[in-house]
Amino acid sequence: MTYALINDLKLAYICQGNGFPIIFIHGYGGNKEFWNPQIRDMSKFFKAIAFDIRGTGESDRPNIPYTMNMLADDMMGLMDFLGIEKAHIVGRSFGGMIAQNFILRYPQKVEKLVLIATNYGRPDTEWVDIIQKSNLERIALLEKDPYLAFKQESRFVYHMKFRKEMEENPKRKFFNLFSMEDLIKSSTINPPRVQDIINQAKAMKTHYTLEKLAEIKHKTLLIAASHDRLIPLSVMQEINNLIPNSILKVIQNSGHFMTQSKAPEVNKILIEFLNS
Fold first, then answer.
1. How far is it, in rounded angstroms, from Cα 273 to Cα 234?
2. Which letter does DSSP use for residue 72 in this model?
3. Residues 44-57: pLDDT tens digits?
4. How many CB atoms lie within 10 A of CB 135?
5. Counting Cβ atoms within 10 Å, is residue 85 exposed (0-12), middle (13-18) or buried (19+)?
6. Given pLDDT bands bounded at 50, 70 and 90, which one contains residue 1?
7. Residue 124: count of CB within 10 angstroms of its CB
8. What is the pLDDT of residues 223-260, one digit of tens each?
9. Exposed/middle/buried for residue 212 (C-beta within 10 Å: 0-12, 13-18, 19+)
10. Which domains are seen in the chain, by residue range?
11. Whole-structure pTM over 0.90, yes or no?
């Protein structure tokens, strides 16, 4: 594993391919490996970089409350470490929240922006408490029964058709990349701890960009899922209305994890947008 040392913080990252850099930011309680379906295809055209944010995967996990500015500064430190002046930024879900805060804090460091299944937050923080509770329950179940934990989560993040295809043949390789068995095994490697979920939730509570989205002047691609049970399509449509130079693409018959279940379609849209 390759690490970047940023102000005594060690961030794990992967970097594949050549060309203009593109940085992928994963979701809440996730890790850089979630982007494997994108790294494989995007590295043919770009220098594709994915990293574990602090408190996840193989990166350091300081037990302190995180903030969005802190996570944005971590990413700025990663770019400095890699000698990257400017990059395309792609964030999904919680990673999309980090991406919004990053571009508002460091607009000069971004060429194009991609936000996938994300939101702009709310002034109150009760919504974060609900998400935190759900994730704490998930990691508790993961310790006891990884298969059941995966099945329960899959009901919320995958479209019913894809979920059935996985369950009918858990060994089936989708897009020559992953099977249901692979995803379950991956969920048990460097999983989040209770403190990590809580600390990331603290950062989410500092996320509210509704009144600042109009300040984003960069070319922006928004990707939404037609059947997202966590981020309604209407939220992405509202973001589309607020960011002046944005376009919205909707992945049909897909859920919150469409970057996995609909990887070829998502990657095609990404490549076309970033190469245009």
1. 22
2. H
3. 999 999 999 999 99
4. 20
5. exposed
6. confident
7. 10
8. 999 999 999 999 999 999 999 999 999 999 999 999 99
9. middle
10. 2-275 (3.40.50.1820)
11. yes
